[in-house]
Amino acid sequence: MPWLPRVLPNVVAITSAHPERTIFTRFIPAQSPGQGAGMWRRYYERWS
User: Fold this and answer.
1) Which domain covers residue 40, as residue numbers?
2) Which residues make Cβ contacts (< 8 Å) with residue 14, sequence separation at least 6?
3) How confident is the model at residue 33, as a pLDDT?
4) Sign of dihedral through CA atoms 18, 22, 24, 27?
5) pTM (global) more than 0.85
6) CA dist., res. 29 & res. 43, Å (int)
7) Looking at residues 20-44, what average pLDDT do you find?
8) What is the pLDDT, as a whole number, of residue 6?
9) Is the pLDDT of residue 28 over 80?
């Protein structure tokens, strides 16, 4: 993921401050309209 080095310091800071309240999930947005799946496809077609 090319964006990971940019956001990782913020993720570490937030999770270190509140580890007991941390749940990590992964969301990778579509690169272009029409690439999303299910409801996300319609979302990205409308709000690319």
Assistant:
1) 4-46
2) 22
3) 72
4) negative
5) no
6) 11
7) 80
8) 94
9) no
Residue with tokens 């990971």: 4
Q: What is the rounded CA–CA span in Å between residue 41 and residue 3?
A: 22
Output DSSP code: residue 33: T
Residue with the two structure tokens 């401050």: 17
- Number of domains the chain is built from: 1
> Rg of the chain's alpha carbons, rounded to an integer?
15
* Closest by CA position to 29, among listed 10, 2, 9: 2
DSSP 8-state code for residue 36: S
**Tokens read off for 43:** 């979302």
Quick one: average pLDDT of 12-16? 93
